[in-house]
Design a protein that fits this description.
Elements lengths: L12 H12 L3 H9 L2 H10 L9 E5 L5 H10 L3 E6 L2 H13 L6 E5 L12 E7 L8 H11 E12 L7 H21 L4 H11 L3 H10 L3 E8 L4 E7 L3
Parallel strand pairs: 1-2, 1-4, 2-3, 4-5
Antiparallel strand pairs: 5-7, 6-7
Amino acid sequence: MTVLPYTQDNKGKKEQVAEMFDNISPKYDLLNRVLSVGIDIIWRKKALAFLKTDHPKIILDIATGTGDFALEALAQLKPEKVIGVDISEGMLAHGREKMKNKKLDHKIELQKGDSERLLFEDNTFDAVIVAFGVRNFENLEKGLSDMYRVLKPQGKVVILEFSKPKAFPIKQLYNFYFKNILPNIGKAISKDARAYTYLPESVQAFPEGKDFVNILEKVGFQETLCKPLSFGISSVYVGKKKF
């Protein structure tokens, strides 16, 4: 099932997602901190820990947004370069300003681009990372296949994405927060009524856990794993390109 940000719009999912993130980009970083109570920072650190022993020199951050995951990757992994790609020019504009202010624009390069049609040569990157982005792909398998293509042999993909907790009472609390509280806070701060109702809907429709691992393996990744975080509110997925 395809979940769209704006159900009355005739545009495709890709165009709608770009429009949605352009709309909320001025408040995106603030909303991330408020809505996750800052725990998204911990999730990013735990996801990147899967690359610690690989020492990647060139990293691609897909659906980079304003560049938070790229910044964390630079801080933790000390690569030579991080390239971030996103379809939202609004998000990228805020991200570029952030890198410039931190004097890191020579280390982190943010480019507008389609995550399902990456404009890079085969076997370019030592690692590909994504935080809360694959859920928004129009064609998930195509996007994952292109990540595989641009990875060097022995390179890893690390994907952080929302999932659905199963245990009582976390499941019930999570569902209440996602369906009743989060949309209202998101609407009040971002002024986009649909953006934060789309979020829980897209999480519900996403093939999490073993289902997502199966797709990773289908496009070629090996040594895959899924690591739930915070009682399964989010999960880290890892895969390796062996050849």
